[in-house]
Design goal:
This protein is about 55% helix and about 10% strand. A five-stranded mixed β-sheet has the order 1-3-2-4-5, sandwiched between helices. By secondary structure, the protein is an alpha/beta fold. The chain has helices at about 20-30, 45-60, 75-80, 110-115, 125-135, 140-150, 155-175, 185-195, 200-210, 215-225, 230-245, 250-265; strands at about 15, 35-40, 65-70, 90-95, 95-105. It folds into three domains: about 15-115, Glutaredoxin (3-Layer(aba) Sandwich); about 125-175, no CATH class; about 185-265, Alpha Horseshoe (Serine Threonine Protein Phosphatase 5, Tetratricopeptide repeat), CATH 1.25.40. It is elongated and about 75 Å long.
């Protein structure tokens, strides 16, 4: 069974890293997909030959590994940790550990042989997993992942992805089945008269969310979180968490998520 992880077709396959983000962008990420770390410097002639070749291969391998580029002059902490003696120096990380390396600007054929020893072609199940990751329609994604699970029932990444997409699909279906009731003007008047009218806030939030104004809907639910310390607060929190996966604007979701965390702590 092929267990080599891959990333979505639209994901970034080449990026710069620093001392500050090395642990997350290289070590932690290597648990999901192999990470090829290119240690280079601006004054290094062979580095200038190798770097574009590695970038080309990162695209050609279509997500079977990602390329992390580390300027050793600007990252003395990581350079020291890796014990760099000469550059270019390239290391391949898997599961948080370096598993192979080479030094110097090797020809493309030798680099491909180096990669092929560790990075296999994706299986049909993994290709479906990648396609599902890029699919906006939850129902279509669930169908792809169910097919992938039939092909490879023991792959945990498929099981996790299927559970997440199934939950997102149910949340979407529940949201679409919810029929907001009431007149927004009347509900707002009730809130003006009694800011603790949580029933009015829930109804108004539902109307706003169904109209596509998730920012306003989150504001209403955050007010419930602020004003109530019991059941209504928890109900508002759960509703926000459910809607985070439905809001099409990541900036709106991130802002609401941060404020919810702040209000709860």
């Amino acid at each position: 069974m092929n267990t080599t992880p891959t990333i979505g077709a639209g994901a970034e396959v080449s990026f710069d890293v620093s001392d500050a983000d090395f642990e997350t962008t290289v070590l932690q990420r290597s648990f999901q997909v192999p990470v090829l770390l290119d240690c280079w410097a601006p004054w290094c002639g062979p580095c200038k030959q190798l770097k574009p070749m590695l970038e080309k291969l990162a695209v050609a391998y279509e997500g079977r590994f990602v390329l992390a580029k580390l300027n050793s002059d600007e990252c003395p902490q990581v350079a020291g940790m890796l014990g760099l003696r000469s550059i270019p120096h390239v290391l391949l990380f898997k599961d948080g550990q370096p598993v192979d390396q080479f030094t110097g600007a090797l020809p493309e054929s030798r680099i491909r042989a180096f990669l092929d020893a560790h990075v296999q072609a994706p299986s049909p199940a993994q290709l479906l997993l990648r396609q599902a990751a890029d699919e906006a329609d939850h129902a279509q994604a669930v169908a792809m992942l169910e097919q992938a699970q039939t092909l490879d029932p023991r792959e945990p990444a498929i099981t996790r992805a299927l559970a997440n997409r199934a939950a997102a699909l149910k949340a979407q279906q529940d949201f679409e089945a919810l029929r907001p009731a009431g007149d927004p003007a009347v509900l707002q008047a009730r809130l003006d008269a009694n800011p603790r009218d949580h029933a009015a806030r829930f109804d108004l939030a539902a109307i706003q969310a169904h109209a596509g104004d998730f920012a306003a809907a989150f504001e209403q639910l955050l007010e419930v979180v602020l004003r109530d310390k019991a059941e209504q607060r928890e109900a508002a929190r759960l509703r926000m968490v459910e809607w985070f996966g439905l809001c099409p604007d990541p900036a709106v979701t991130d802002r609401a998520r941060r404020r919810l965390s702040m209000y709860l702590n």
